[in-house]
Design a protein that fits this description.
Layout lengths: L2 H4 L3 E3 L2 E3 L3 E4 L6 H11 L3 E5 L8 H12 L3 E5 L6 H15 L3 E4 L12 H13 L3 E6 L3 H10 L5 E2 L13 H10 L6 E3 L5 H9 L4 E4 L1 H4 L4 H20 L20 H6 L1
Parallel strand pairs: 3-4, 3-10, 4-5, 6-7, 7-8, 9-10
Antiparallel strand pairs: 1-2
Length: 269
Amino acid sequence: MPKDQRSDPLRLYGLEFSSRLLAGTAQYPSPAILSQAVAAAKVEIVTVSLRREAGSSRAGQNFWSLIRALGVRVLPNTAGCRTVKEAVTTAEMAREIFGTPWIKLEVIGEEDTLQPDVFGLAEAATILARDGFQLFPYTTEDLIVAGKLLDAGCEVLMPWGAPIGTGRGLNNPYALRSLRAHFPNVPLIIDAGIGAPSHAASAMEMGFDAVLSNTAIAKAGDPVKMAQAFALAVEAGRLGYRADLMTARDMAAPSTPVIGRPFSDLARA
């Protein structure tokens, strides 16, 4: 691992990680390609959904075995849950199956956009945090909601870039920058809507702490190459942010200014 990356770890609930790219595990063409993509991206955290497959079926057992064989930290999620009760029950099941208090908390409130139900999300977060869960809530860029989730006991937030699976990138850069500025010391991970490595780099250049990608990698023509591209984009965006990006200007500024008259004028004199 490059020195710069080792000296700039991602800190989540008291643990440190070198990679700032998280990967989802759904929609890959095959288990082998999933394994290769995770290895190529050098991710250290993957998300899994208990609702993807029946846990009691042979297919489900094979999937859990595959995930464990990846040798990375598992972040179970409550994807597909529409109510507080569903989300809490799914989180409790995930803790039993994976032996982890980590939960990517999702409570979906709208079918077309899969927008989080932020009221249900805050309620579920309050219940689970009191029970010792370490939560990664999938939320919007709303500042008030962010504050409520932090008050509930969340130490990490996962605001969306755009609706899940749309690949639209960062739909509301102004609100995302405001979120970053209002909570400078809270780990913020962009989740959902990231469709290209350039979107991931942009998020990192804004100062976000990490990016989660699933569909953009899994559904690419070559998921393994795309995983590599995302890993490089996240690293480049982070390095650019740490290097202090130049401020955009309205007027041109010469990159190589000269003193006095142009050389062409001197030649004609």
